[in-house]
Amino acid sequence: MSNPIRQAFQNLKRERRAALLTYTVAGDSSNKQSLEILKSISSYADILELGVPHNTPVADGGQIQTSAYRAIKNGIKMNDVFKIVKNFKKSKYSKPVILMGYYNMIYQYGENNFLKNCKKSGVNGLIVVDLPWPENKIFSKKCKKSSINFIQLISPTTSKKRLKSIIKDSHDMIYYISMLSTTGGKLKVSPRKILINYNKIKKIDPKKNCVIGFGITEKTISKFKNTDGLVVGSQICKEITRSLNNRQNPVINVSKMVSKLRKKIS
Amino acid sequence: MKLRKGIPVIDQGDKLGFWGGKFGGNFVPETLKKPIEDLEIQFNKLKNDKNFIRERDKYFKNWIGTPTRFIKLNNLTKHVGGAQIWSKVVSDANGGAHKIYNATVHCLLAKRSGKKVIIGDTGAGYAGKMLSMAAKKFGLKCKIFMGAKDIKRQQPNVKAMKKNGADVIPVYSGSQTLVDAVSECMRYWVANCDTTAMCVGSTVGPAIFVRICGWSTSQISRELKVQLINEFGEVPKKIKLYNCVGGGSSSFGFWNEFMDYDKKQVEFIGVEAGGPAKSKKHAAPLTYGSKIGILHGAAQYVNQNNDGQIEETESISAGLDYPGISPLHCFLKDTKRARYTAASDEEALKAYQTVTKYENLRPSLEPSHAFSVAIKEAKKLSKDTIVVINSCGDAYKDKKILEKKLGKKYVKSN
User: Fold this and answer.
1) Which of B183, B194, B308 sits opposite A104 (nearest CB)?
2) Which domain holds residue A74?
């Protein structure tokens, strides 16, 4: 069977719609609740990114840090993250799941052991924030062998030469970081400029699916609906925090938000 | 794993920035690849540029004040009764600590690349204070990231930073100490690397920062070598260099010029922060056998749990309170060129009391860790052995802690 990530993009091309990717942190605010959130938002989201919480995240802003610290405080371990994915996949086998995190978590688990457990639990892709190209060459090859998509990141500072090499070494999906920012920053670059860079990537290899993340919210998402896909993360994490503070159910509130996001690009 | 002779240790990393094939590297978000590469190109060019070195030396001499003193501690030697105890008083440097060398070099680099703003992290506040001084000197705007806990315990340095016109940004995440300050500083750089230069306060972080810092603090050992030859006519036959190790910038700088000597002649002893005697927490990853992990862009021995979460540290000295350690020191440990051990909070305090009792020298809590081990070992050494301790910081910043632990009277009388 073809990789569910590739399959998802193929289906969406037929529908002529951008993919909606969500990001939530595993174990936020509990292992059970983060599983419920995944199940509930999977009716609207096309690909689910699940963050592996880490306590020295060098690229995450306040909202995702808050979610990650909440999960770590609750004692989440790497094995719990795999369990959440496995339980989710029991009912939603074909919905693609991507784990996103920092390399030390993989390094301590052991690369091979990590990939084995990814496969066992049903993880389809990996984003490793602090393992850039060319440092990721060996690991991304290992991922490919295990039929797991290693997702390369590209940013506005990526040079032309790097851009070509990174795209060449990428698998089915590429993640374009819209601006110089940590996650959760306000969109400080015009959508037009972001789309110019997006098109540069697509021009080099139109077959690669390129999603845009950072600064994507309910307010900004519709401006990018003619792309391959969009990632919303911090706004969702913020909604979980807000719900908890107001003693409301995060599962319901986050679902509502993701359903709205989906409508904006449909 | 082998240390090579005739090549500066900072240049012994491989293509990807790994020392010994496994320490260091560049574990950074894609956004930082370009600014790091730019800095690498700039530094590799300038470190061999005569004009740049002349400029550096001019500021080191006229502004920082080189050389710092190399003095014999006669009373302490007599009291201990063993090896000759000497000190390299690096706290003589403008600002009161070794952090000024790295800060000055980073500002010179930032100026040349046309950056208007420079940011930095700080634990004890020295790195921040020095960066704010250098930024002011070179007309750069300055932002300093500092853990909220450290802001409370190192007020004199916070005041100095503000006086120099720097923004001091408190960091409330995690343990609110140096580790979180470095993370926050890197995050800020991710978002502003097009206009802003970053100075990492120690020999930690992505490989280029390790190299720039090591290159800068090596001024200490360059001076010491000349001073030793002036004093003894040669580098003594048996000499031991004691230095505290947090991130590892002062110790690396204190040792670098002597790297190629046989360790039987010039021995390096790094003293980590063992934390409170009764606590399990410490900041001594080399002494207590922490596993290799990734922290702040580099592979290193680091305090962490089985899952890879970085563990909280505990130490009386904010400057050593860091869960990781420079890749350079990991390399020196595994090649067995340097020996590492730890001193507890209590031992450091006791050493501070002993030194200030016998000498007109007031080492901060960081070098007090090194004094503690040096005093203990000197007792058992022969009179012809030369023990040198790098007194790399002044205790003025620790006034509040010392008053609390030792009483007001004691601190005032010194």
Assistant:
1) B308
2) 4-265
